[in-house]
Design goal:
alpha/beta; five-stranded mixed beta sheet; TIM Barrel; single chain; 384 residues; globular; Sulfite Reductase Hemoprotein, domain 1; eight-stranded parallel beta sheet
Length: 384
């Protein structure tokens, strides 16, 4: 079963459909569909694939009215506990609320729509929708899309910006008298995930936490990253629901659930991994293959990048391979080399500066050139 361990941290219980999260309930393992939401048959099949693998909650991304219409039919055909991931358009909440059990919004995206309205007014509207449609909410703060206000308030300290952004939205929820919410604070670096969630849990012990290492990447490294973060947090009673984010083809998406189940079971049994040298060399981060991916070739490209760069394994360099517009810009800006994958071309960046747009076939040649140049530059500095 997905819910094989108990969290010793005492939070309030948040009901997501029929699934209790927090309050001593079993840790819920969840996952997210990678199919195009408008492809109803494929998405229903994947919802069931994940549910049958043991996912307590299955998340679907909705970005426009056509996807809202698809969601209605997906809901009709499935008994799974469904969460919806809102993108830049938070106003879709009122349309999806009747068909899902939880709505996830990103505080870093609220400024994209209705700029004349305050963040507080937008959150108050989301709370009203949640109440009216019997939904829980997730405040989902992500390192790749932190609200500009908090980045400006904490310059050079993205981690504190993430924690304070989440705390501010908790303040808003409490002012509005709404308690049916969970929080997630995600980063692509396990150590930052541990630190952010530990800080937050110390100041908000009553709030259930959704754990995740965003853009963990491909197995096996993506699994190790997730374990390194989750083991430390769960062992300290921090974490009430988890999602393992892996770059996988659609037919293997259920492996996220299986990995999550194993981590929960291992922590409960006191089994932990030892990886003292992990993270000291080449680091490839890549987002999970979700419905926001603009070209499914992204998954194959990530695998090709891994094979191409094996010769650089001992160099402390971060390469980001991102498949969508949501977290792509921020994550590729933060990497030494970033590949932001669009429908037909890949935007290659070097430390946040654009190198150029290349076809999926051409980009690997240029990536190799940029990687070689970066290694030579660093070696030159060392020699000096």
């Amino acid at each position: 079963m997905a819910n094989a361990a108990q969290s010793p941290r005492t939070t309030r219980t948040v009901r997501i459909g029929s699934v209790p999260v927090g309050g001593g309930a079993a840790i819920a393992v969840q996952s997210m569909c990678a199919t195009k939401t408008r492809d109803i048959d494929a998405t229903v099949q994947q919802v069931e694939q994940l549910r049958c693998a043991g996912a307590a909650i299955v998340r679907i991304a909705v970005d426009n009215d056509l996807e809202v219409e698809a969601l209605k039919e997906i809901r009709r055909q499935s008994t799974a506990t469904l969460a919806v991931d809102l993108q830049e358009n938070y106003r879709l909440a009122v349309k999806v609320g009747p068909y899902v059990d939880k709505i996830r919004y990103n505080p870093g995206h609220l400024h994209h729509v209705e700029r004349h309205k305050s963040v507080r007014d937008k959150v108050a509207w989301l709370v009203d929708v949640a109440r009216d449609t019997d939904c829980a909410l997730r405040i989902g703060v992500n390192c790749g899309s932190v609200a500009p206000e908090f980045l400006e308030r904490f310059p050079g300290d993205q981690l504190e910006a993430i924690v304070q952004s989440a705390a501010y939205h908790c303040d808003l929820m409490e002012e509005l008298g709404f308690e049916r919410f969970v929080v997630s604070l995600k980063d692509s670096e396990p150590a930052k995930v541990v630190e952010a969630n530990s800080r937050f849990a110390a100041t908000r012990p009553q709030v259930p936490l959704h754990l995740g290492v965003t853009e963990a990447g491909m197995p096996p490294d993506g699994i190790i990253k997730s374990r390194l973060a989750f083991e430390k947090l769960l062992a300290n009673g921090i974490g009430d629901t988890i999602r393992v984010s892996l770059t996988l083809p659609n037919e293997r998406k259920h492996e996220e659930v299986e990995v999550g189940q194993q981590i929960v079971e291992d922590v409960a049994a006191g089994r932990f991994i030892s990886a003292p040298d992990f993270g000291k060399g080449l680091n490839i981060i890549s987002c999970p293959s979700c419905s926001r991916v603009e070209n499914e070739a992204f998954v194959e490209l990530a695998q090709q990048v891994r094979e191409l760069t094996r010769y650089a394994a001992q160099h402390r360099i971060t390469i980001a391979v991102m498949g969508c517009r949501v977290n792509g810009p921020g994550e590729t800006d933060d990497a030494d080399l970033g590949l932001w994958c669009g429908p037909s071309t890949v935007n290659l960046k070097r430390r946040g500066e654009k190198v150029g747009n290349f076809s999926y076939e051409q980009v690997l040649v240029r990536l190799r050139q940029e990687l070689d140049a970066l290694i030579a530059q660093r070696d030159g500095h060392v020699a000096a």
